[in-house]
């Protein structure tokens, strides 16, 4: 049977995280709340090759990849086509952060200003 004893160093430890971790978590939760307000809003995402995707914002992961549902792809048509852009329905898509060149959310001016801090 092992003997469990407390040392003087253990007496000052508490279960709460250090102040800098608490501040980081509080800042992170503000960003999470802002992202929750964007859920299921229309989002237009541009990628490096000139295409645009319009869909409902579904989620974003830690790496910045965006999931859009009911997405439609828009791209420049060939010169021989009468329409300046072509479109096709895609459904649920993941747009990698490395490919993204722009991102616009359909929301109020106040909402747009608060998203600039993300």
TrEMBL record:
Pfam families: LSM (PF01423). Residues 34-95 form the Sm domain. It comes from the Eukaryota. Residues 1-29 are annotated as: Disordered. CDD domains: LSMD1. SUPFAM superfamilies: Sm-like ribonucleoproteins (SSF50182). One of its GO terms (cellular component) is NatC complex. InterPro entries: LSM_dom_sf, LSMD1_Sm, Sm_dom_euk/arc, snRNP_SmB/NAA38-like. This is Sm domain-containing protein.
